[in-house]
């Protein structure tokens, strides 16, 4: 149980939830026929008491939150009472300290009423879930209330007319923004959806940077009340902050405005991924898709490549290659559709093989197109970042401003506008090839930042040029130029992350506001332990499924069976690792365990195409250095191994069916042929 009252800082330790879950599981799964030694009885009693204590701590926090939120008090208190009753029931059923004494013969315990523990555990789960959901509503209400306070203060700041009044209101605004930042930061950390987390990070980054902009822009307006460019500059800051505040509320309330399009719908890489999944599904089901759907889907993807071919910044060589690959993909789709139609009426082996070949060919062409698009976008971005690394135009704008040079302002404002258009265009191209939804969102954020900040730099430079001796106007221009330079730095990081994803190295994003929590130690925290334990349990179940399939085979020395048994054994050792058992003692042991030899891999996977990419990804994970992020590496290793095991289970089952079918056909052949003339091997 992990429940935190953000406003008061009260919290239940995260490990209480993991430990309590494990303890209840231990109680429910204990064997009835286990010898009830004193050590066993004492252990069971300690577990029951520990569960009750953890529930007690949970209930105290829930009751405290209920007392602060009268609209939800009754619902929270009822759920807390149920949780408390369940905890006490579990403690009573495990109170078996006197079980070995004669007078305790009639006592109801976990050994005599195991269903009682199960009922209590279910009640506990239900009541705790209710409290957590209600507490989540409290947190959302806190964020909305905090946002409304910030908006109200912003409205007062917009109308302020004196420095003294501005200083007082801005001090209040600063405190409210700090509170809002804390609430939204906690919420961002709690989000499980990576897409929402990226959106929240982008919105919070806007608010953080705009707070300083709002200060200097407002002061400039107060100093120069009749300057149109100063007012335009300030209004741009307020507008962007309001949009960011609304975006935060959309995320926490999960309310999407009507008409808003999903970013993933405009990503070429996402479209290619979905298209490949559709054509690969034809291997299993010839009627999975219509040919019209496939044709339309491919055309939509190729239309989006026009963002590259129509761009003035794309080189002639890249443009020609993209057009060539697009034409090739169209031709190969027509070939695929032709073979597909034949295979629906003529289900022969040769047609099936031809269909497989056409699927592989178009997949290869699309992969080549992806590579070309990636090369085009990343090369453009790298060249652009390199050419703007010295920020010559920004320096020139500052100089023309303090000199009051209006002609120079016009010249360099035009150059900055050209830079802005280049950066915006490249961000759009990077979005197409980013590879993940969070990175797509980061690209959109970068595009919007360059678009808005570019205009604001020009208006700030214009104000300084009109008032060249104004210190506050100079300070204001410096703030906006720093924001531009910061976004250029963020774009360099974004480019590295996109390359990491494309090459199979999932780069981790580092926060600009580094804190001790961002530098994780090798030891995973309680939340990470819970995630690993859950992954391990799923892996253990898959191992059991694999073993069941292996036992069906009469020939236990069959090559498939032997390799399958080895993989299952390796996966089981990973499962034991997540429980703190088995031969793997450290995270490094686990990683070394998964470093398969190429020969062994080829023996097992020669004809099994589905396993090849998973094994490749697994090898990439084991060999990719992730300093101070061992948990992340372990998490990825177990996730990839789960994928391999899931396919292995299907593979063993399919091979077993095929073997039985082959044996049946052989028996039929033998029954109608002279047995003496038939070689047993044949």
From TrEMBL:
It is found in: Cytoplasm, Cytoskeleton. This is Alpha-catulin. Belongs to the vinculin/alpha-catenin family. Keywords: Cytoplasm, Cytoskeleton, Phosphoprotein. InterPro entries: Alpha-catenin/vinculin-like_sf, CTNNAL1, Vinculin/catenin. One of its GO terms (biological process) is Rho protein signal transduction. One of its GO terms (molecular function) is actin filament binding. One of its GO terms (cellular component) is cytoplasm. It comes from the Eukaryota. May modulate the Rho pathway signaling by providing a scaffold for the Lbc Rho guanine nucleotide exchange factor (ARHGEF1). Its main location: cytoplasm. The gene is CTNNAL1.
């Amino acid at each position: 149980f992990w429940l935190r009252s953000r406003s008061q800082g009260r919290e239940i330790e995260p490990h209480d939830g993991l430990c309590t879950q494990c303890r209840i599981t231990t109680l429910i799964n204990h064997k009835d026929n286990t010898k009830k030694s004193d050590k066993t009885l004492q252990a069971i009693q300690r577990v029951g008491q520990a569960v009750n204590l953890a529930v007690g701590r949970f209930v105290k926090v829930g009751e405290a939150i209920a007392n602060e939120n009268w609209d939800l008090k009754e619902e929270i208190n009822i759920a807390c009472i149920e949780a408390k009753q369940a905890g006490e029931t579990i403690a009573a059923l495990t109170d078996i300290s006197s079980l070995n004494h004669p007078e305790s013969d009639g006592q109801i315990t976990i050994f005599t009423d195991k269903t009682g523990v199960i009922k209590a555990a279910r009640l506990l789960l239900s009541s705790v879930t209710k409290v957590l959901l209600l507490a989540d509503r409290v947190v959302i209400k806190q964020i909305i209330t905090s946002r409304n306070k910030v908006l109200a203060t912003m409205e007062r700041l917009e109308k302020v007319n004196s420095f003294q009044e501005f200083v007082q209101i801005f001090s209040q605004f600063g405190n409210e923004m700090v509170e809002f930042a804390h609430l939204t930061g906690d919420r961002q950390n709690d989000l499980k959806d990576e897409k929402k987390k990226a959106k929240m990070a982008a919105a919070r980054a806007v608010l953080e940077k705009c707070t300083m902009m709002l200060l200097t822009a407002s002061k400039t307006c107060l100093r120069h009340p009749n300057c149109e460019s100063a007012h335009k500059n300030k209004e741009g800051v307020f507008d962007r902050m309001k949009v960011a505040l609304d975006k935060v509320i959309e995320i926490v309330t999960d309310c999407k405005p009507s008409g808003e399009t999903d970013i993933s719908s405009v990503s070429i890489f996402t479209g290619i991924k979905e298209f490949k999944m559709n054509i690969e599904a034809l291997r299993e089901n010839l009627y999975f898709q219509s040919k019209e759907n496939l044709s339309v889907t491919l055309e939509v993807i190729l239309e989006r490549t026009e963002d590259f071919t129509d761009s003035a910044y794309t080189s002639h060589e890249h443009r020609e290659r993209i057009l060539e690959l697009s034409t090739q993909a169209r031709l190969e789709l027509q070939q695929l559709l032709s073979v597909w139609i034949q295979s629906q009426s003529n289900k022969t082996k040769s047609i099936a093989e031809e269909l497989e070949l056409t699927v592989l060919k178009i997949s290869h062409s699309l992969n080549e197109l992806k590579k070309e698009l990636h090369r085009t976008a990343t090369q453009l971005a790298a060249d652009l970042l390199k050419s703007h690394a010295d920020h010559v135009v920004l320096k020139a704008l500052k100089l023309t401003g303090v000199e009051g040079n209006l002609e120079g302002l016009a010249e360099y404002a035009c150059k900055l506008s050209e830079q802005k258009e280049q950066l915006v265009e490249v961000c759009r191209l990077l979005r197409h090839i980013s590879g993940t939804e969070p990175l797509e969102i980061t690209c959109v954020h970068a595009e919007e930042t360059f678009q808005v900040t570019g205009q604001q730099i020009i208006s700030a430079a214009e104000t300084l040029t009109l008032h060249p001796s104004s210190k506050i106007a100079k300070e204001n221009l410096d703030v906006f130029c720093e924001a531009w330079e910061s976004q250029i730095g963020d774009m360099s990081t974004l480019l590295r992350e996109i390359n990491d994803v494309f090459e199979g190295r999932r780069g981790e994003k580092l926060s600009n506001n580094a804190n001790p929590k961002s530098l994780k130690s090798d030891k995973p925290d309680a939340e990470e332990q819970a995630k690993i334990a859950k992954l391990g349990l799923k892996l253990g179940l898959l191992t059991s499924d694999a073993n069941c399939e292996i036992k069906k085979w009469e020939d236990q020395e069959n090559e498939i069976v032997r390799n399958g048994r080895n993989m299952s054994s390796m996966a089981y050792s990973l499962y034991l690792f997540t429980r703190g058992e088995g031969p793997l003692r450290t995270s490094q042991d686990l990683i070394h365990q998964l470093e398969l030899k190429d020969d062994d891999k080829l023996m097992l996977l020669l004809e099994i195409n589905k396993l090849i990419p998973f094994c490749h990804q697994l090898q990439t994970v084991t060999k990719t250095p992730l300093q101070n992020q061992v948990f992340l590496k372990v998490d990825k290793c177990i996730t990839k191994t789960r994928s391999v095991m899931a396919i292995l289970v299907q593979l063993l089952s399919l091979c077993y069916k095929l073997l039985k079918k082959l044996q049946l056909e052989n028996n039929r052949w033998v029954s109608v042929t002279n047995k003496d003339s038939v070689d047993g091997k044949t």
